[in-house]
Amino acid sequence: MTDPHYIIASNKMCREAGMDPTELAAPKNFLSKAEFDEKRKAYSEILSVVSFFSKKLLNSLKGTPILVVVSDENGYLLSSEGDETIKSTSDQFGIKLGAQFTLEDTGTNVVSLSLQQMQPISLIGDQHYHTPLHEIACYGTAFHNTEEDNLLGSISIMMPIGFQNPLYLSMLVQVVDSIERELLLRKQNRKLNILNQIMLQRTRNGIVITDENGITTEFNKFAENISNNSRESVIGRNICDSPITGEYFKKVLHEGKTFNNEEIKFKDSNGKQVVCLFDAQPIFEDNKMVGAFGQFRDISNRYSMQEKYNYLAYHDDLTQLPNRRYIQNAMETAIDEINAGHNRQLALLFIDLDRFKIINDNFGHSYGDELLRKVSERLSSCLGENDTLARMGGDEFIFLLTDFDSPSYVIQKAEEILNLFTESFLVNKKELHTTASIGVAIYPDHPLSMEKFLVYADNAMYQAKAQGKNQFVIHTSDLSDEMISESVLEIELRNALENDEFVLHYQPQIHTVSKELIGFEALIRWQHPRLGMLEPGRFIRLAEENGLITQIGEWVINEACLQNKKWQHAGMTPVKISVNLSTQQFLTRNLISYVEEVLDRTALNPKYLVVEITENMAMEYEYSIYVLKELKKLGIGISIDDFGTGYSSLNYLKNFPIDYIKIDKSFVSELMNDENDAIIVVATITLAHNLHKEVIAEGVETQEQLEFLKKHNCDIIQGYFFSKPLSACEIEKVYLLH
After folding, report:
1. Which residue numbers delimit the GGDEF domain (predicted)?
2. What percent of the chain stands above pLDDT 90?
3. Which residues contact residue 97 at a Cβ distance below 8 angstroms, ignoring those fewer than 6 apart?
């Protein structure tokens, strides 16, 4: 049987090098004691693993004179174990610790061939070049770091030739396989341990880990900071006894429950409120629960910021009363519950001060403001258990009465309010007299929108003023001339689409710094054959109530895309056009396919179309996320309109794929007069930029507002300061012909 090629090649090299086959060639290179100790130290883990499995091999072959030799990747011998007789005999062969075995120095040898061939080898008897080794059988193989596939060293076994057996090579391969797997496992465990330490100590979350009985086994630094409990005081205690999280962990450990984003509040040792989002879940090993994992995320700052933001957005700075936005939301909630079948009572008292303008003009705004504060205090004094008082703006206040026993309560409250004004108000040592005109509206037994209900009360208030002031008037059908005209308008609205009576006007959106045209917002107008050009406030609500809003919204999208493409063909620099989506349109199942079809038909690049949604549209959270992501896939932009006046603004900013945030004009209009509105605007711009979104301020009407927004890095401006909404022809004269 022919020897393997590598043995033939090695022996040939020995002959050509002039080696004497009758004399053993001794190693020429040796590690110094310091080098040897350093190498052994570096290989300590490897040698301990090799030693463990070598001893198992030697035990399995007990009684056989075997020597196990380990080298590093360069052939330096680092350890030898085995039969003492063959161990002493091996010294004459130059097998000494620290010696380097190479083919060039020591001729054909099992250590060098194992490292060179990178495979298990046998070197038996006269396969050795040197005749003194012909009585020796050797088996060897290299071992590796399997994760990085780099060579670590070799293991060889040597024995008298009479004990040779090919099975030894198979046994050696199995040993090396075990060594490599053990080394890999230890390395992975070290990595895992490091990662665990990093996770526990570097995460900004508080981590708690328990065993299966609830005994706390880990409590990281952030958990200490959040809870103000030291690690030493918690480790070893049963987490189920915790007054804060004990009940959660009981359900995790006893029922296998999982908790996500549970909001928990507690006081720290200084009495300061801490608000956290808490997650907890069981830990399993081989399908057996072995403990529980808990995680705290401290959101105290975010929570207090959101509370402050919500307060500023929904309260009047002058009187500290709820504002228009607050009371409208409260009205909508009550009306929704009534329409859903809940047994609730609802009434409005719309209050307007008489002669307030005269007081303001004669005594100045400081007197007027102080009078409004005094009035709000006096009005607050007659609030019932289920009543809410708000300042609507200027000298207008509103009482929202809910869940009263009978309509007589409403009348009694109106009379009580009028009586509050019989005495004068002392303002800066001056006695000022004013009275109130009150419009009363009681929610009827048929569905009514919040806006229409408010109009009822408003109309009744104006009727009270017309009848001489200082009285209240209850809304009746006789006061509904405007409502009657709306009914006629609703009928005509149904024919408006078919008769092509709608037109779009376009309000420019301007870059705050460069003053360049960024885009337009498309705003619908109704060219009514009898009443002339009608603003959307006159008919959009009607369209929503009679179900036409979706068809009108689709017309707007189509018309805006056609017009934009027409302007591009005519040579206008391409810009974006924004269109508003109504709630009904947003919730229709064919919105995405319709937008895609319009873009295909008009050949408009999707990047030049932006759809605007309001926060209240997204109440159906999961569906909203789906729709917005699908719209983004089409390549169009998405803007949140009227930001700050809707529901859960911060949550939407975090999760929705939006590009632009439009600051509501109600904030911009009071920017220079109301410090809270200014705070909200600056906070919104900062928050949006940190989330990599652009900000559009609408309703900009003065140079002062522009300078404020420019100073605070608002990106885009829209409002009458630059331009009112213009017809397509007017846009072409300004932006196409020039």
Report:
1. 344-477
2. 34
3. 36, 77, 78, 79, 80
